[in-house]
Amino acid sequence: MEDVSDPPFRAVCKENGADLMYTEFISSEGLIRDAAKSRQKLDIFEYERPIGIQLFGSDIESMRQSTEIATGASPDLIDINYGCPVKNVACRGAGAALLQDIPKMVKMTGAVVKATHLPVTVKTRLGWDDNTKNILEVAERLQDIGIEALTVHGRTRVQMYKGEADWTLIGRVKENPRIRIPVFGNGDIDSPEKALQYKNRYGVDGIMIGRASIGYPWVFNEIRHYLNTGQHLPGPTMAERVAVCKKHLEFSVRWKGDKAGIFEMRRHYTNYFRGIDHFKPFRMRLVEAGTYGDVCEVLDEVSEAFTVAAV
């Protein structure tokens, strides 16, 4: 969730029911070089807890050192990203690339575990491609080296985010009698019905939500309510969409400053109002708005226009 799951985004997710959250993944090399962008990603707030700092890298010593730095930020856990499939990460030997070198993955994980007193978790994929779906071996070996939970995305690196996520192997990891740690499933969960279906079918200990939460943080409470009651919560009203978008914007400006905060919020407006008919003119105005006050003015017009239309 690079450039998405920053503190402003996490704030609205937490308020809408997320149980556990992670920072954007942070480059180990960036941390040990004291790069400003990497350091800023260490910012965590008390209301976010439990919160994990997620690291990625290709060099074992850099991962060890960055773990020590991240531990100093006092998160609740350290997470290693062995799942990112994007070219500028995987082709540099980090993220999902480690699925092609399991001995190195194990050694790197062991170095991270030894470098912190915090629980260490891992996020990964089924394998590099259809011919190397080695998640069963990976799960056992990472558990044996000391990780305390595993999240598996149901695609290979080659698949990127295409096609349908295959949870069959995730279920087999969970069913393995040697696996004692919690196993979380990830991939394509975008509705309460699917969350319940996959949880029951594959027996996972929890579900990780990624893309479905972008612009729709209500998904967490909706899923929890459905799991507990079998009933659907009503979707957010336009007034609720505007209120949460404003809260996200306000935090973004406060954390990043006016210019960056307003600019980086532009990617979220379409998502907050996805599926709303006749919204395009407002979206264009939101993207063009240059000040916090200008954005809020447009959002107020959105709320008024669509509330009147609904009546």
Explain the overall architecture.
The protein is α/β, with parallel strands linked by helices and 311 residues long. The chain folds into two domains: 7-229, Aldolase class I (TIM Barrel, Alpha-Beta Barrel), CATH 3.20.20.70; 238-310, Orthogonal Bundle (Non-ribosomal Peptide Synthetase Peptidyl Carrier Protein, Chain A), CATH 1.10.1200. It is 49% helix and 11% strand. The chain contains 14 helices and eight strands. The chain has helices spanning 7-15, 28-32, 36-40, 60-71, 87-90, 102-114, 135-145, 168-175, 192-202, 219-229, 238-256, 258-272, 280-288, 292-310, and strands spanning 21-22, 26-27, 51-56, 77-82, 120-125, 149-153, 183-186, 206-208. Strands 1, 2, 3, 4, 5, 6, 7 and 8 form an eight-stranded parallel sheet that branches. Helix 8 (168-175) links the parallel strand 6 (149-153) and strand 7 (183-186). It starts with 6 loop residues before the first helix and ends with a helix. 42% of the residues are buried. The mean pLDDT is 92.
Taking the alpha carbons of the first and last residues, their distance comes to 37 Å
Global structural class: alpha/beta
Label the CATH architecture of the largest domain: Alpha-Beta Barrel
Largest sheet: 8 strands, parallel
Uncertain residue ranges: none
Silhouette: globular
The secondary-structure element order is HEEHHEHEHHEHEHEHEHHHHH
* Rg from alpha-carbon coordinates: 20 Å
Helix content: 40-55%
